[in-house]
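Customer escalation, tier 2.

The customer says the design service returned an amino acid string that "doesn't look like it belongs to this structure." They asked us to rerun it and document both sides in this ticket. The original structure tokens are below, unchanged.
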């Protein structure tokens, strides 16, 4: 069966960036920035994105493009006879399923809030009553199930049309909408009274403030965020490498994907911080920032119903672009490994993901006493396995596979990364030493600190 390809380079870049751009950028990035003193954190984040994110992203794409296959068979095609690197491919598949077991619920929350704002559910509410909307939703499994099921069905419906007609076509529309919305929302936030203070907090490096949090903590948090923002280590990116043409170098494409990803993360901060400072709202709150803090801000704003609706439409696009990208990965794995047709893969995966998403959904109500890992609820436990274990460990394995002589090998990786026109990885001893000895240590640090 002939492997599908992207119709256009723009399609590849938007789909890959759409996979990377998710709730982590828009929800986690601003509150982690807020908790870590603002500007200094952003500075370190950008540095780590260049020295850690870009190289590992090129490696994952290189394995995909050189093998033209999904994770398991990709490793098999490139590994030395008798070696066992492909076992990691199965862990990648498990990681993608685990990610979707909770991501579909959170994506459903975004969709639910979009309809709540559009329908005027927040009009006239104040303070505690606004927080109550989120708590009421968590306590209503049937309502959450409705949004989750809608998300899953819509996701698999898009993927059922194939790569070009489904994923690429829909993502182009969604990502264009997302980028337009984010600019409109940011411009609006910047026009609010007192917005300048928010921008200063966010973008001006203040080492005094960073030292209060502890510079070491700020650096570690920046390293973490830079690493996780690209969803590396569970073959979420590898699959798009397998659909790529050889026209452009992987370093150039990786820089473009990181650029889009960072643009969205930085712009979401420009939406959130000026608005929070304008209405004297705390920015260091965790997940509550999106569902409790920001609705309070929108409700007090002129035209708040419209701005709230647009914001949650943007959030829905950001989360749904990741959902369909990971679904495509799951389908490709089943088609490649088991020889299924796309239709069969869609039906089986859709049923499986719907059932597997239930524990997370029920973790806030029926199963609220169930704390499987380190006293965390179901969603946080699943997220811990993916974010703290599978992503860093998987990235380390991809890295070692590409740079060690026991794996695919440094020279073959470099040749693949530099095939095509565009920005190239330099053939220097310094880079080779960095990738073989220093970067693995940095990733190990992230892994150990995450435990």
């Amino acid at each position: 069966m002939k492997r599908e390809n992207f119709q256009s380079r723009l399609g590849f870049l938007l789909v890959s960036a759409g996979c990377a751009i998710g709730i982590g950028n828009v929800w986690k990035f601003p509150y982690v920035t807020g908790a870590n003193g603002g500007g200094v954190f952003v500075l370190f984040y950008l540095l780590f994105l260049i020295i850690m994110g870009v190289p590992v992203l090129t490696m994952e794409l290189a394995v995909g493009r050189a093998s033209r296959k999904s994770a398991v068979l990709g490793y098999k095609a490139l590994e030395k006879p008798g070696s066992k690197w492909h076992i990691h491919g199965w862990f990648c598949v498990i990681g993608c399923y685990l990610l979707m077991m909770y991501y579909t619920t959170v994506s459903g929350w975004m969709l639910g809030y979009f309809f709540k704002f559009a329908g005027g559910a927040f009009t006239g509410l104040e303070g505690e009553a606004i927080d109550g909307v989120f708590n009421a939703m968590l306590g209503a499994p049937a309502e959450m199930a409705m949004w989750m099921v809608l998300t899953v069905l819509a996701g698999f419906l898009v993927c059922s049309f194939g790569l070009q007609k489904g994923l690429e076509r829909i993502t182009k529309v969604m990502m264009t909408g997302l980028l337009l919305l984010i600019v409109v929302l940011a411009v609006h936030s910047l026009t609010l009274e007192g917005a300048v203070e928010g921008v200063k907090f966010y973008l001006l490096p203040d080492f005094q403030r960073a030292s209060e949090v502890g510079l070491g903590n700020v650096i570690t948090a920046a390293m973490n965020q830079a690493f996780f923002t690209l969803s590396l280590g569970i073959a979420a990116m590898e699959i798009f490498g397998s659909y790529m043409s050889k026209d452009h170098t992987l370093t150039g494409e990786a820089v473009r994907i990181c650029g889009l990803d960072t643009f969205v993360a930085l712009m979401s901060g420009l939406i959130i911080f000026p608005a929070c400072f304008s209405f004297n709202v705390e920015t260091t709150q965790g997940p509550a920032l999106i569902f409790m803090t920001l609705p309070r801000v929108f409700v007090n704003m002129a035209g708040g119903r419209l701005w709230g609706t647009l914001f949650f439409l943007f959030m829905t696009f950001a989360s749904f672009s990741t959902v369909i990208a990971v679904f495509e990965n799951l389908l490709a794995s089943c088609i490649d490994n088991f020889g299924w047709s796309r239709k069969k893969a869609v039906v089986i995966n859709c049923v499986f993901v719907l059932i597997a998403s239930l524990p997370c959904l029920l973790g806030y109500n029926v199963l609220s006493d169930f704390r499987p890992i380190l006293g965390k609820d179901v969603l946080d436990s699943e997220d811990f396995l993916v974010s703290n274990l599978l992503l860093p460990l998987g990235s380390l394995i991809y890295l070692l596979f590409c740079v060690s002589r026991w794996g695919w090998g440094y020279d073959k990786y470099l040749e693949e990364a530099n095939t095509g026109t565009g920005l190239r990885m330099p053939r220097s001893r310094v880079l080779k030493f960095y990738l073989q000895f220093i970067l693995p240590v940095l990733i190990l640090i992230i892994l150990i600190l995450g435990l």
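Tier 2 assessment: The sequence is consistent with the input. DSSP finds 20 helices and no strands in the chain. The CA atoms of residues 48 and 402 lie 20 Å apart. Sent an explanation to the customer and offered a walkthrough call.
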